[in-house]
Every structure is written in structure tokens, then in C-alpha cells.
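Deviation from plan, reported transparently: nicotinamide-adenine-dinucleotide complex.
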Amino acid sequence: MNGDWKKYVSLLAQETTESYPLRNPHTREKIMDIPECTNEQMENAIKNGVEAFQKMKALTSHERAVILERVCHIISENKEEFAQTITLESAKPIKYARGEVDRTVQTLKFAAVEARKLEGESIRLDAAPNGSGRDAYTIYQPIGIVGAITPFNFPLNLVAHKVGPALAVGNSIIVKPAEKTPLSSFLLQKAFEEAGLPKNALQVITGDGPRLGKVLMEHKDVAKISFTGSPTVGKQIKSQVGLKKVTLELGNNSALYIDKSVKEKVKDIAEKAVVGAFSYNGQVCISTQRIYVHKDVSEVFLTHFKKATEKLTYGVPTDEATDVSGLIDAKSQNRILDWIKEAQQEGAQIVTGGEKIENGIQPTILTNVKQDSSISCQEVFGPVVIVNAVDSAEEALAKMNNSEYGLNAGVYTYVLPQAFHFAHELEVGQVFINDLPTLRFDHMPYGGIKNSGYGYEGIKYAMQEMVNRKFISMNYQF
Ligand code: NAD
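Because the crystal trials were delayed, the predicted structure below was used instead.
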């Protein structure tokens, strides 16, 4: 162990003797050692979590909401420390890291609001022929321990998307953060401690995903697994959890259609699309990856899009001017470079970029890409976007739906029936008309179909998946 790791790491994890090196993705230099927690420590955390659950469920919803409100205040007061930590461990450019901290505060504010609102319903039993003489209603009860397994790309907000709803309903939660980005979770845990959360209601256990995940998934006292990450791991988890509740928030190859009816706005859209395609180097589950443009406006779109893309600054993530930086690891960098080469060999042209730059990749636009090319049909999770011209809206719709994923999609059109047609026919969980697919508000229902997921997040919707609904009938004529 070295550096100031104790500042971050929880007491439980500090007992660990094994460790692994945490690297700055931009420079690939070691930042500090992180505890490689043992299976026994995970089991101890579950034991602690059982006790903490008793305390959590005894709190009123008002008391839980107050803790969540306090934590929002603590994070806001320490915004720069949270942002610098995100940047340090993930190489997310600082301006985007600050945005993630702001969103985390929003996420937890929504959790505080929803904590006070989780209400059941009254059921008219006398609607059934033999149901008279009874009052009936439902209540929601917390389920126990939630096991949260999270990805590297939003190391704070995507943890908050599990912690907020779990605590709002009165559960306890154990977070197994991505190996590459554990520090933000530790900071969040400290903020909750300071806010007065009962001891061990939120615990962070770091180390190997498959090994520690298995302990969580197989333990009888863990009631639910909430996972955000890659579809490959999501499928493994689904097959391992048995009868436990599970939510899976997985990947996508988000598509956008730009219709000829928005001709006057094409320059604006091109400038926005740069942010959708390249923010955090495209390492965003809803990054704009496939753009289909009506042939009448495709040339003008490409000209503006190329110009705006070439203005992006590659640099050190802590620098205020930096737009793009190093990718999360060499494996990811090599895979994306291979996919670019494969697309070129299949006839695609590079409009801009296409080359390695230090530990990153230049923001890259490809055109005339085949639909079954990996860079189109797989999730790139990097700074690469394809722009293909289409003859009609129908052709765009068919190509957008020709995907094994189904998370977000976007359509720019001024033709109202066309907008409704896309809204109904797109095979995704969320459709954005006249916005990019790279959009999420933290309280909206958010979940994928096909290989993009199972279940929903968005505070209220995540809470509904972290409770048991109980039906109660009172026979008052007995
Ligand atoms: P990943 O699947 O490699 O890892 C995610 C987490 O799973 C990590 O904590 C890891 O340790 C753990 N893990 C790995 N193997 C495991 C196993 N066998 N059992 C249990 N846990 C295991 O994902 P990543 O590279 O960190 O993140 C990128 C992926 O996440 C992309 O596919 C992206 O689209 C997806 N993502 C989805 C959303 C969404 O909301 N839909 C949001 C962000 C990221």
C-alpha cells in the first residue's frame, strides 16, 4: 500500500493484505494500491449488512429522506474533491467529471423526494362476486441487502443510482465497484457516514468482479443484484442469480436519424452530435455511435460534423480545456483500432481521425460503413462514430432496429407523423425526438430491451424493483 489510500478506503477493506495497482488511465501510471478483498470479507460485509438492514427498516421514510438530503449537501460542499477523484481514477476530463458530480446530487435529491412518496394502492375487492366486506390495500416493504456491481465509466453517479433508491426504501447495500474506479465509491460511503447513515448500511468491497460477484450472487442473505456493465457479464449474472431479484443495465450502439425536414438545423445538430459521440471518449453506454442522415442533407452534415470534431482538444484530463483523453485501458484501445481497420478493409472511409494518440484514439468519423462491421453492430465504447447516408426515413428505421441492442435512440424531424412512427417502431427502451440518443435525466425510467438490459433504473423505478409488494385484506364483517 502507498500514497494516501487510507483517506479513501473503508475500515473493513483496510484489513486486507492483498492489493492490486490502480492506474491513471491517461498515463497508465500507478496511482495507489487498492485492497483485493477476500471472499471472507465479502461474507462479513453481508453479515454486517443483515444487521444494518434491521436499523434501516426501522427508520421512518422521513428519517431516510433527511439522510439523503444531508448527503446531497455534503457532496455539493465537496464538489471539487469528488470531481478530481473521478478524473484521477477514470481520466474523465474535469469538466465532465464536475457534471457527473452535479448529476449525482440530483440523483440523490430525487431519492430523498421519492423516499417520502413510495405508496401502495387501495384495491376494491367487492369488484369480485364474493369479495364484499373487506378493505384491501398494498404496502411496499424493503427486501434486505442489495448487491450492487458497477462499471467504470460513471464511478459516482451510477453508484448513486443504486445506493440512493436502496437506502430510500430502507434496504442496506453492498457496492462492488469497478476494479478500475473504486475511489469515488469510497468517497460516497464516507459522505453517507457523515450524513448519519446507520453503520454498514452502505459498504464498499473492492476487488475481482467474477470472484466477489459470485459470493454476492450465491449468498442467501442477498436479496437482489443490481448490475450495470457489459452485456457479456450481464448475461453471466442473469444465469447465476437464480430466484434473486435482478436488474441489468447493459450496453448499446445508439443510433440517430437526421431527416431532410430539419435542413435548417443541420449545423446545430452536427455541433451537438460531437458532444454525444465524443464526451468521455465515447465511453458512455448511450454514446451516439451510428448516425443515419437523409441523403439530401448528409454532405452538409458531414462537413459541419467533421469541422466541429476536429476542434476537440486531446489532453491531460485535469486540464480545463481538455475534451478527450486516454482510454480506460490498452485492451480497449487495441480493440477499437482493430475495428477501425476492419471497417476500412470492408470499404469504409475515414472522414477524420482513425489513429492512436498516446493512450487514446483520435475522435474518429467513419462513413460508408457496412451494417455487419464490428464498429457498427457491436458496442464501440470509444471515440468513434459512423455516419451513413440513407435514401429514406424507412431505410433509417430499419437500419436503426438492425441491432442486438435496444437502449436509447434519437430522431431529428419536423414531420409529425414521422416522429410518431419512429417513436412507436424503434426497438429501444427510450426514444428522444429532436434530441440525441445520448441523453438521460436521472429521474426518468431508464432500461434497455434486447441485449441492453432487464429491469429499470431512474430513482422511482429502481425503488419499485428493490421492494416487496404486500397485499393486505381486512374482513370487517367477520
Ligand atoms: P464490465 O461488465 O466489464 O464490469 C462491470 C462490473 O462487473 C465491474 O464491477 C466488474 O468488476 C464486474 N464483473 C466483471 N465480471 C463479473 C462477473 N463474472 N460477475 C460479477 N461481476 C463481474 O463493464 P465496464 O467495462 O466496467 O463498463 C462498461 C460497460 O457498462 C459497457 O458495456 C456499457 O455500455 C455498460 N454501461 C451500461 C449503462 C446502462 O445504464 N445501461 C451505464 C454505464 C455503462
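The mean pLDDT is 97. We consider this an acceptable substitute for the interim report.
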